Amino acid sequence: MQYKYTIMGLLDFFKSNKQDYISDFKSRNAVIIDVRTKSEFQQGAIKGSKNIPLQEINNHLVSIKSMNRPVITCCASGMRSASAASILKRNGIEAVNGGGWNALEKRL
Question: Which of 27, 58, 82, 100 is the most exposed place for a label (fewest CB within 10 A)?
């Protein structure tokens, strides 16, 4: 039983750490990039977010870098946005995975 609480505590630490990153990025005028498909994005999205589907993210690296702003990625559940944040970081762009867009919108 102790093991369960240790894991839960660790998950809470990462969750609060992620929220700290999101708050910090937001305070520095971060751009939100939604990496869902265009049709998913059209069904609902965070106001002001930019839609760049994950499959196209590599084609937009120059324009994303030129924004000179931190990036919060989001998608439906957080899987694709994790991949996108990883790609952006590998290319010198400050990025954090915001997870699912519905949950992220509530935290903003």
Answer: 27
Residue 76 Cα distances to 3, 43, 62, 90, 105, angstroms: 31, 11, 25, 22, 12
pTM: 0.83
Domains recognised in the chain with CATH numbers: 2-107 (3.40.250.10)
d(CA 66, CA 23): 22
Structure tokens at 61: 């690296």
Phi and psi torsions of 48, nearest 5°: 85, -5
- Best CA proximity match to 100, nearest among 84, 80, 76: 76
Burial class (CB in 10 A: 0-12, 13-18, 19+), 18: middle
Distance of alpha carbon 68 from alpha carbon 25, whole angstroms: 12
The side-by-side arrangement of strands in the sheet containing 95-100 is: 50-51, 31-34, 71-75, 95-100
pLDDT of residue 55: 97
Residue 13 reports pLDDT greater than 80: no
